[in-house]
């Protein structure tokens, strides 16, 4: 165990605003799915409402989901049947169920969020036949507590990511094998966490997992006027964005992997990610909604990115193509 100062375990006032970002992300995803941007027959099981968002927002979510998925599949191609996925700040993400539909086999899939989020997720799962069926492996018992759920390879656990001691403890309960190839995902999560806590998390992963890939989806280029307006809008919702300094550029996104001794890292803004989506797919979604002007979409894409970091050599050839 790393000998480090642990932050207070009390939920801070700002945490409530951070937790609320999950409802917003889930609503946006639900809305885009309903318009036909991508398929997800599970998102409506977790979130019942969605307001119509601007076409730029829907396209942004589409690129986000496709960008992260790209690296999930690259990981799976390389990791084999010992693959483990740990989704940090998973919220109501439905990836486990979507991978199940594709018959992807994993040795472990863990979702982590604040206990107040996982308790809602566990509640939805246990009351929903469609969700439950997919996590119920034959003969395997479903273990439930108010905030955690364990069912075969699927685990949903409530823990504050700033508390490494408890995180490690809960990952042991989820029977994570630290020597298996492991994918970490954090989609719009690290920006809400203080830099020293993110550094501690990255160092801990790097020392514990000899073969790991980390996929981050987050903001970048936040130092210009457009970035400042985005930040003001987010702050107006009560989030202080404690980790924003790593979102200055593509370079600062990569730096935190390098500074925490990861083997390598790469990053792309969403303009590049969007362009890398096959033409026919892009043409299909571009017909779904009329976009008044491209300029705003391009600016949005310039301010979000995918950054990957890896430990060991198993994932060092992961690239955009
Ligand atoms: C914007 S939401 C994104 C949810 C999901 N990753 C997605 O993309 O749909 C951010 C999530 O990170 C979680 N989160 C932020 N800080 C966290 C922390 N310190 N510990 C656990 N979860 C955290 C929030 O509760 C929330 O569910």
What is the molecular shape?
Answer: globular
Strand order of the largest sheet: 3-4-5-2-1-6-7-9-8
Percentage of residues in helical conformation: 40-55%
- Please state the oligomeric state of the protein chains shown: single chain
Low-confidence stretches: 1-10
Describe this structure in words.
- The chain is α/β, with parallel strands linked by helices and 321 residues long.
- The chain has helices spanning 13-35, 43-46, 55-79, 95-101, 115-126, 129-135, 164-173, 195-208, 225-236, 250-259, 270-275, 279-286, 294-302; strands spanning 84-88, 108-113, 142-144, 149-151, 154-158, 182-187, 212-219, 264-269, 304-311.
- Helix 8 links the parallel strand 6 (182-187) and strand 7.
- Bound molecules: S-adenosylmethionine.
- S-adenosylmethionine (SAM) binds next to helix 1.
- S-adenosylmethionine binds next to helix 1.
Summary?
The chain is α/β, with parallel strands linked by helices and 321 residues long. It has helices spanning 13-35, 43-46, 55-79, 95-101, 115-126, 129-135, 164-173, 195-208, 225-236, 250-259, 270-275, 279-286, 294-302, and strands at 84-88, 108-113, 142-144, 149-151, 154-158, 182-187, 212-219, 264-269, 304-311.
List keywords for this structure.
single chain; alpha/beta; Rossmann fold; 13 helices; 46% helix; disordered N terminus; binds S-adenosylmethionine
């Amino acid at each position: 165990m790393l000998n480090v100062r642990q932050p207070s375990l009390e939920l801070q006032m700002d945490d409530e605003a951070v937790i609320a970002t999950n409802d917003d992300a889930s609503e946006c995803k639900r809305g885009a799915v309903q318009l036909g941007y991508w398929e997800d027959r599970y998102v409506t099981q977790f979130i019942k409402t969605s307001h119509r968002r601007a076409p730029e927002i829907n396209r942004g979510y589409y690129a986000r989901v496709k960008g992260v998925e790209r690296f999930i599949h690259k990981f799976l191609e390389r990791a084999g049947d010992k693959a483990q996925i740990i989704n940090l700040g998973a919220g109501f993400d439905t990836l486990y169920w979507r991978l199940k539909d594709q018959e992807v086999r994993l040795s472990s899939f863990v979702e982590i969020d604040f206990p107040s989020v996982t308790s809602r997720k566990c509640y939805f799962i246990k009351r929903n036949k469609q969700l439950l069926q997919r996590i119920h492996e034959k003969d395997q018992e479903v273990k439930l507590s108010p905030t955690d759920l364990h069912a075969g390879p699927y685990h949903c656990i409530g823990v504050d990511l700033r508390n490494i001691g408890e995180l490690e403890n809960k990952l042991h309960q989820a029977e994570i094998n630290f020597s298996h190839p492991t994918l970490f995902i954090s989609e719009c999560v690290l920006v809400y966490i203080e830099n020293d806590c993110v550094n501690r998390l990255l160092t801990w992963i790097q020392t514990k997992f000899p073969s790991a890939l980390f996929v981050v989806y987050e903001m970048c280029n936040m130092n210009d006027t457009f970035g400042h307006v985005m930040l003001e809008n987010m702050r107006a919702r009560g989030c202080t964005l404690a980790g924003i300094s790593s979102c200055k550029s593509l370079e600062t996104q990569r730096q935190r992997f390098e500074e925490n001794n990861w083997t390598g890292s790469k990053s792309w803004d969403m303009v590049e990610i969007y362009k890398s989506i096959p033409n026919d797919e892009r043409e299909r979604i571009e017909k779904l909604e009329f976009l008044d002007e491209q300029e705003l979409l391009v600016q949005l894409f310039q301010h979000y990115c995918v950054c990957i970091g890896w430990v060991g050599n198993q994932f060092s050839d992961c690239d955009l193509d």
